[in-house]
Design goal:
about 675 residues, mainly beta, Methylamine Dehydrogenase, Chain H, six-stranded antiparallel sheet, 5 helices, flagellum, cilium, cell projection, Intraflagellar transport protein 80-like, WD40/YVTN_repeat-like_dom_sf
Length: about 675
């Protein structure tokens, strides 16, 4: 994965460009020390000067009013917020006319940002003050007063908190009264740039010494790197939250969300003062000190599934190949490719206008349907359906392009990330954005289980946890009434529940787990722990610690920093090592365990018993014992528990059989 810069032409600004911001996927606004507001159209490769501001207006930042699904705010969507060195912020319309100028700070107004929910304005200045304003420019509160300049600030994704810098410190200040303020020493030098990820709630910061650090909101350091020789002057997360880009003197670097650099660009443009992503996350614009506004897009993203691999080799071109037959093809699309998903015998490609579903057996005859907004952030695939996240809205489609469900989710959910959603063959799970301790599980219509398209309360199961849920995963096999869900909370506890269980209870399966994934072929759950990969073949009985025969642990000390599981198929786990490079494939040694699970799922008890007798493996007998007892196969359970030397269970089963026989004789 790397950035490709469009050809750089003669600069249109007469001085340094200080700020850029996207209006849509084609229009970009820039402003600089020449007092000009310029609009760029990437479709026609034209630019025009919208306005020339007064000589005393030197911009420090530019932010367009956020595009949100709120008709009540529609009248304000054509306004631009500009901060300036004279301590003011200005509300400007798209024609360049200044509607309002507000005196905000003594000294320069270094930060001026609309809130993500379009309900307020955040400013920070050289005078050390951080203030909240209404959208009309009325002061609501002075959040911070300090004798130290605040160089950078940012809104939280839910608009309920702000993040600001104070020399070497990062500070999270909730806007609710009497809420706890979080402050920590983040860098050894002055912090110049910050960004708050709307998808996974991570924070990235850059300092004067060129260090870049990634944090969570609990002050834990995720990653640090000395990326630049010169100060890190700008940072910006992609709208999808899976990447961020950082700028410095004559350099741009692209990083994955865990901080590892994917690629870097050496430029000849001076310092990069501002970087901004397009709404679809496929392009970025950078404001440069020599008067250039440069544009770049991402290429060479690679996706793999079984024997298929596909690579985005251009903005509108994907190369796909079957490595077993060496058959390959090049797929061209009419618009820029936004998201790609490969799996379950299908390739799904979302552009800014349409979604294309290719069968891997016939690449050139895709199913096509139109998108509402074209801002697709996530595509999830399952065996029977696919889910698209478009501006926070969830839509589930069949592979024939038919809309199956559009669950109604909570407001302010534009930041819905991949970790907070999971798709099964007949269910969809989503963490409630407004209350992240709550998980909604929606039933989906399938060929064997028909429900209405509307997602009323009868088709929604709510799972409540006592702390924040960070990620979740639905099992991929079995009937809907046995569908299981695994959760990871912010303490890294792994919890499992059966969705349709009337006595639904979240049971702690393990602790200190970093990543989880279900096998696509059986009820095998795989998790990553420190220097180990752990497989749980049976998750429903975790109250007896002596029964560990259904847990398989594979030592592994080469998983890198902050690893995550991409998929589990054919007994092989594909693990992203977190080093911005490769995905490693590790055999779990669970082929026979999965065979037993498949036999039991198909009610083939004699075949499962014969396999265990042949291989004489304790893990197989343990799985068979637990599941036979659950399914009331007492004879098989008795033999299996005897093989794993759990004689207390053998005596209990014999007692149950005697009771059953006595009842039968009576």
């Amino acid at each position: 994965m790397r950035l490709k810069v469009s050809p750089i032409k003669k600069p249109k600004h007469d001085g340094a460009v200080i700020c850029v911001s996207w209006n849509n996927t084609e229009d970009v606004f820039s402003c600089g020390d020449d007092h000009k507001l310029i609009k760029w159209n990437l479709a026609t490769n034209e630019c025009m000067t919208i306005a020339t501001f007064p000589d005393e207006l030197y911009p420090t930042g530019l932010h367009l009013f956020p595009k949100i699904n709120n008709s009540g705010k529609k009248s304000q969507t054509d306004f631009i917020l500009i901060g300036s060195t004279d301590g003011k912020f200005h509300i400007v319309n798209y024609n360049g006319r200044i509607e309002k100028s507000i005196n905000a700070h003594q000294g320069a107004c270094l930060v001026a940002l609309w809130s993500p929910n379009a309900d307020g304005i955040l400013t920070a200045g050289e005078d050390g003050c951080v203030k909240i304003w209404s959208c009309n420019g009325l002061l609501r509160s002075t959040v911070v007063e300090s004798d130290v300049s605040c160089y950078m600030a940012a809104w939280s994704p839910d608009s309920n908190s702000i993040l600001y810098t104070k020399r070497h410190h990062l500070i999270i200040h909730p806007l609710q009264a009497k809420s706890k303020i979080t402050k920590w020493w983040a860098h050894e030098s002055v912090i110049l740039s910050v960004g708050w990820n709307a998808s996974n709630n991570l924070i990235v910061s850059g300092d004067e010494d060129g260090y870049i650090k990634v944090w969570d909101t609990f002050q834990q350091l995720i990653f640090t790197t000395k990326e630049f020789v010169h100060p890190c002057t700008s940072i910006s997360w992609s709208p999808h939250g899976d990447l961020f880009v950082a700028g410095s003197f004559n350099k741009l670097s692209l990083h994955s969300d865990d901080g590892w650099p994917n690629s870097s660009l050496d430029l000849d443009v001076g310092s990069v003062y501002c970087v901004a992503w397009s709404p679809d996350g496929t392009q970025l614009a950078a404001a440069c000190a020599d008067g250039h506004v440069i544009f770049a897009h991402i290429i060479d993203r690679t996706y793999n599934w079984k024997n298929f691999t596909c690579t985005q080799i251009g903005r509108k071109v994907i190369a796909i190949k079957d490595i077993t037959t060496d058959e390959s093809d090049q797929l061209d699309y009419p618009d820029s490719v936004v998201q790609i998903a490969l799996g379950f015998d299908h390739l799904a490609v979302a552009t800014i206008k349409q979604c294309f579903i290719h069968k891997l057996t016939s690449w050139n005859t895709p199913v096509t349907f139109d998108l509402k907004d074209g801002a697709v952030s996530v595509i999830l695939l399952a065996s029977r359906c696919m889910c698209i996240v478009e501006r926070g809205r969830l839509s589930v489609f069949s592979y024939t392009g038919r809309l199956l469900a559009s669950p109604q989710i909570s407001s302010h959910s534009e930041s819905r990330g991949r970790a907070s959603i999971s798709l099964g063959p007949d269910t969809l799970a989503s963490v409630d954005h407004a209350n992240p301790t709550l998980v909604h599980v929606y039933d989906l219509p399938t060929a064997t289980y028909s429900i209405s398209r509307g997602t009323g309360d009868n088709n929604v199961t709510k799972i409540k946890h006592h702390t924040v849920v960070c990620s979740l995963a639905l099992s991929q096999t079995g009937p809907i009434n046995e569908r299981q869900i695994a959760l990871l909370d912010r303490r890294r506890d792994l919890l499992v529940a059966t969705v349709k269980d009337p006595k639904q209870k979240l049971s702690v399966l393990s602790r200190a787990v970093f990543s989880i994934m279900w096998s696509t072929e059986s009820e095998l759950l795989v998790g990553l722990k420190k220097e180990a990969i752990v497989c749980w073949a049976y998750q429903k009985n975790n109250t007896r610690p002596e029964l560990t025969t259904t847990v398989i642990s594979i030592p592994s000390s080469n998983m890198g920093h902050n690893p995550s599981i991409q998929c589990v198929e054919n007994g092989v786990a594909s693990i992203y090592r977190g080093k911005g490079s490769t995905v490693m494939h590790i055999s779990l040694g669970v082929i026979h365990v999965e065979m037993v699970l498949k036999y039991i799922a198909s009610n083939m008890w004699s075949e499962a018993l014969q396999l265990c007798r042949t291989l004489k493996d304790t893990k197989l007998w343990g799985c068979l014992a637990e599941m036979a007892l659950e399914k009331n196969q007492l004879d098989i359970a008795e033999e299996a528990f005897e093989e794993v030397h759990q004689y207390a269970e053998v005596f209990r089963i014999q007692h149950l059989k005697n009771i059953r026989n006595s009842s039968g004789n009576a």
